[in-house]
């Protein structure tokens, strides 16, 4: 594809990614027609922080469901790889991801240039002493409600559950990146979860162009200069290739 007019002269891009960018890697999304919570609404309750801490049964169901959701064996797909290649051209590219699967980093994106707004499934944190353990180690223990090996506290994957507040320092960095961007691209996100979705408005109010690549309508479509409904695995590589081709030799 040719680079669209809204992409010409752009040197600073911020990308917000949601679950839709990882479905081609075999990681199900949450709210889509075949999403985890759509197919089994009861699973939604397992991601409530208050219930997770208070109810042993909730934690047991959570840990039983986790292996199918944590994406340890998943591989980056064409969209992840395309974004990493675009960064390697020297373009100023920052990724703000709602995903917890680590696939951007595994695709080759510079870790410090990827902000994991909702945490990472790769590690597990003790809710009492804050000790961290690789999640795979916890799963390999085979316990239905694992406890911290150091203090016996409740363990939770290092992700933000419903009822938890996002790291304010991290959110501030994300807002600063959105504010400084010339182009803000939201990929594979329902844009229903705040405050991450509001980064679209932050970028637009600062003068950035907003482009949304998503299968379904979002609450921010009216703010976008362009909404792309093509499959993410097609649209993102094509757009990244167009940007790369426009870079000075």
From TrEMBL:
It comes from the Bacteria. InterPro entries: DHS-like_NAD/FAD-binding_dom, NAD-dep_sirtuin_deacylases, Sirtuin, Sirtuin_cat_small_dom_sf, Ssirtuin_cat_dom. This is protein acetyllysine N-acetyltransferase. Residues 1-249 form the Deacetylase sirtuin-type domain. It holds the Pfam family SIR2. Keywords: Metal-binding, NAD, Transferase, Zinc. One of its GO terms (molecular function) is NAD+ binding. PROSITE patterns: SIRTUIN. It comes from Actinomadura harenae. CDD domains: SIR2-fam (cd01407). SUPFAM superfamilies: DHS-like NAD/FAD-binding domain. Zn(2+) binds at residues 126, 129, 148, 151. The active site is at residue 118. It is an enzyme of class 2 (transferase). Its EC number is 2.3.1.286.
